[in-house]
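Structure tokens please, single chain.
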Amino acid sequence: MTHVLFVCTGNICRSPLAEAIFRREIAARGLDGLTASSAGTGAWDGAPASEGAYLIALEHDLDLSGHRAGLLTRDLVEQADVILTMARHHRARVTELGGDAVTQVLGEYAGRTGPDAEVSDPFGGDIELYRSTYEDLDELVRIAVGRLAKEQREQGASD
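Here you go.
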């Protein structure tokens, strides 16, 4: 079983959307052995998804109504096999908690370089900004799921 942890700042916009997209993708592809959760480097434990993230999720048949923000902790880092962050400063926080070996910026994991590797924070923006963030996440998470599935197949073949 490979557990993926998505990390952003407040765990109310980007990482919950990434987690929901990830779950949809693994179900659509019939992939077993992959699970996901999300956390934030500055999350207020128990906060619901932001209104914009919630509405954009609904537009794409994803349900964030039960999401509650969680603060990134050393325990969460230790439980994850792969940690994908939205920005480089999130990766720095994960590294402080001991997760450097299993952490990458989501965009870099999906093959992007430079500033395009980071997913911008839509918090406080209009609905169009949330739509743009969703489209970015949708593309990156699909690529990440494909890469994880390939790595699982390769590992299974070598076991």
